[in-house]
Amino acid sequence: MKISNTYNENETNSFFIKEVETTFINQNKNNEGQIIKNKLGLIDHNIRDLTKNNFSNQYKETKNKRNFGIDFGRILAMLFIINHHIIYHGGPLFNTKVLSFDNDLLIFLNTLCCSGVNIFGMISGFVGFHSHKYTNLFYLLFETFFYNFGIAFFFKKTKVGIVNDLINFLFPLFISDYWYFNAYFTMYFFLPLLNKGIKIMEKREMGIFNLSLFLLFSCFNQIRHYSERFRKDFFLFVNGFTYMWLIILYFYGSYFGKFGNDFGYHNKFIFFLINCLILFFVTFLRSIIIIYKMFHHSRGINMTVEYTSPSNVMISICFLNILSHLEIKKQFFQKIVSCLSPLTYGVYLLHNHILVRNYVIKNNYLWLIKKNRNSFVLILIEILESLKIFFFCSFIDYIRFLIFKLLKLKQICSMIYQIQKKIGYKILSLFEFYY
């Protein structure tokens, strides 16, 4: 009995010791697990802080790296477009004697200013291939409606008999003379696909692609101006007044936006000089061709406004190269450029409304070509008139901007897009259910 009791006591003690050891082991494991969790939590917290700081630093860098030269390019392009409208629609170009110095100078300036539309299209590709937001399109639609209907309403109240039916001006996308907006609106729905293609293309691959577009749709398309047999616009580009041409310009601009080079001071000076020389030479050469065509053929008039021409594309690319590497370092000028750049589209809508063009601009600048007026004074006054139109329209558009901001139109556009997105997803789910 004593032996058995001793054995039981020893067994009980050993069992108790094992239980204690197991408890200690589990506690150590739990403590080690907690320590590891704390370390992992600390690492995760540090990683979050690092990523947050990296993202904030990247945001600050991108904000600081804003290309004010491109913003200035929008302003310059709009000034070019206004100059072109004054020269072309205002009357001076077609009311000066062919081969006179005034006419030659106006043709040269008009050739230079016709690049404004191409510059706008290329800038869209230069900055737009990074992101794509449909809310911006809704905002542009509201802005276009505001001016299309608002200007018509103003003319109806102030000019009797000019506007008979205001309802026509309620549909800017279908009944308006804003060809650029109509083309841009159509192009916008292709941008998600275009942007994906642009992002995956290598430099050489995209360069060959753009060169092919240039040779086919610009160079090859010029045959109709120099051949009696082939006069048809076989690509149906209508001199560039189509959404397909804006898509090509978008590709050109995205190439320079994606693969732009940074130059040193001396290389940048040489780069600017080469682009300026090409710019002047091509503009001069095209002006000579237009003057010759206008003197010998009636078809020369068609060449005065031709966005698809190789020379116009080359002029626009030179301007884009110069503007994209232009450094605006003084904060005063940066603020001016930042303020005026978003207003350029409103300037276009205001001064190029069909009623403004027909009753304010058309043949109302014939006073510029007075007799015995120096040709350079004529050009100087014409440029000052374009500046006056630009700043007057910018002031009006700034008031419109404040009204839209007060109405919180951007938030409304975002809500409309979200509703449209939900409806689209439901329709798509039904489509996927059947197919």
Can you describe this structure?
The protein has 435 residues and is mainly alpha-helical. Helix content is 74%, strand content 0%. It contains 17 helices and no strands. The longest helix has 63 residues, at 2-64. It is globular, with a radius of gyration of 33 Å. Mean pLDDT is 82; it is low at 1-20, 29-33, 35-40 and 45-64.
Offer a few descriptive terms:
mainly alpha, 17 helices, single chain, disordered N terminus, 435 residues
List the SSEs and their pairings.
Elements: H1 2-64, H2 68-88, H3 101-113, H4 115-128, H5 134-158, H6 179-188, H7 191-200, H8 203-219, H9 223-226, H10 243-258, H11 265-296, H12 310-324, H13 331-340, H14 344-351, H15 354-361, H16 375-406, H17 409-434
Helix pairs in contact: 2-3, 2-4, 2-12, 2-13, 2-14, 2-16, 3-11, 3-16, 4-10, 4-12, 5-17, 6-10, 8-10, 10-12, 11-12, 14-16
Class of secondary structure makeup: mainly alpha
Uncertain segments of ≥5 residues (pLDDT<50)?
Answer: 1-20, 29-33, 35-40, 45-64
Count of alpha and pi helical runs: 17
Tally of strands? 0
How many domain regions?
Answer: 1
| Shape call | globular
Helix content: over 70%
Rg estimate, integer Å = 33 Å
Q: What sequence of helices (H) and strands (E) makes up the elements? A: HHHHHHHHHHHHHHHHH
The proportion of strand residues reads: under 5%
End-to-end gap: 86 Å
Let me know the largest β-sheet.
none
- Quote the average pLDDT: 82
